[in-house]
Description:
CATH topology of one domain: Guanine Nucleotide Dissociation Inhibitor, domain 1
Radius of gyration: 25 Å
CATH architecture of one domain: Orthogonal Bundle
Strand content: 15-25%
Number of helices: 17
Helix content: 25-40%
Amino acid sequence: RNYYGGNWASFSFSGLLSWIKENQEKADTSEECEDWRRLLLENEEAISLSKKDKTIQHVEDFCFGDQDSAEDVEEAGALSKLPGFGASAAVGVAQASEKDGSPGESASAEVESQEPDKATGSEPASATEGNDTEVTSENESAPSAALGESALEARKAETAPADTSAKEPKRITYSRIVREGRRFNIDLVSKLLFSRGLLIDLLIKSNVSRYAEFQNATRILAFREGKVERVPCSRADVFNSKQLTMVEKRMLMKFLTFCLDYEQHPEEYQDYESSTFAQFLSTRKLTPSLQHFILHSIAMVSETDCSTLDGLQATKKFLQCLGRYGNTPFLFPMYGQGEIPQCFCRLCAVFGGIYCLRHPVQCLVVDKESGRCRAVVDHFGQRISANYFIVEDSYLSESICTNVCYRQISRAVLITDQSVLNADSEQQISVLTVPAVDPGEPAVRVIELCSSSMTCMKDTYLVHLTCPSSKTAREDLEPVVQKLFNLNTEKETENEEAGKPRVLWAVYFNMRDSSGVEKDSYSGLPSNVYVCSGPDSALGNDCAVKQAETIFREMFPAEDFCPPPPNPEDVIYEEDEIAPEESEFSISPETEPKSSAEGSSSGSGIAVKKEDDE
Length: 614
């Protein structure tokens, strides 16, 4: 691929259009080296890898916005063909180090060059109006500061629009979306970070959190009786809520308090362990609206498939995550989910790791006697040897995956002109669950992002819809889109459509979910080849973190998984080693990013710290 992160990637609008075209055509772009088999020895055989990515299917995109000024659209679209607007280019750590002799500079160059067409967002002023605060692990007070390095601040300043205080008509055309396409960072997979989830713990432990910025998800919403409502989930929200009666407030607080330590009261639920969580809720003294809020917006579980214990556990997890970094349990990485893999790549680059873009691999080279993989052969005909090989599922050919049964994820991404629930502040990151209409169908998760999240341009919202697939993505998700949004392209809409947000552009696609596949399901893989999956359909990232740690421990059982990198002043060099100033990958003070206390005090982003931070 010519971009980072595989199916975890984020794209600018022009980059996403290129991705859509590539997946609709499904062309084989790799150039196979004809004489790679000559690199095999007599006692070796090859396992060919797939030349096409088959993880994305049924890609359909639609434009509902005004499509005037066709010439402007073509002119804006031509920008994507320019070197600075096209696919990202990798900068080698060694090359950057040779340029100025600074390993810290090389790491910065690696990351800043990863996505040159990624926009820094549309409204830097809105970021300070939103919910960006400096946060420590236990929510103790601390000075507001940016989490990332000054380079991240520079990214905002470079493409910040001029201050336009004069009121302009809020008219979004397709040509404007294309022209300002670099302000979009559109995720292929839509997820959030639980504030006490495994990924947050890993980001803190490994110090990777310093390379990213986060915002709170500001609202939990529910869709009930054809209306979008805000769900009170914290104690303050419950008692300030105007939609709940005093009796309902007491009911809700009593039940949530029970869920926090439900293990201590087995007599309350043991008679319902074989029942669904929805059935258990109906036996509690809860009104229908409270049952709906708990089931779909707090536990976020299926009405028909979730057991009582699983529902109680999900509710407890939600409640435990409240208050750590804000009034909801969730964080969202600014500039999109695609920032997370790039942050890990950045730390890897500091210590000599190399990430190669546009570099196809032809086959695995296997020793016939030992059955172990010795090397890979790339499209240049170069043989690269190693002791261990980690392969993403999409690289494996059909002959290896004959016994594998994949699930699918239905995805939709919309660009809209207003929020699904208007509030005093336009800068809201909202999480909404739309229950299934028919039994057996999955609920649809909706995440709505505003411009201060640096994922869309001013005056627009980016909406992600996700659910496990039962049909094509469009068949699964379009009914929900029609409930929440106005798809009418005419300026004059009917009265019932007038209050709905208008969809300007949309794309639907199905993505393979290989998260539940065991290694034994793959045929003929050597013992030192490990398979990692693409994204799963869950809201959090626990599956990916568990899988990464499992693979790591199988390879290196005596090593610590993702240990914190040493501070530069703590690195001791042996006399017979290369001097730090001469070493290509030496650790220098520039390598260590600014801590949150030393960083900018602009107040954008959330800093994630260790719990014992001094």
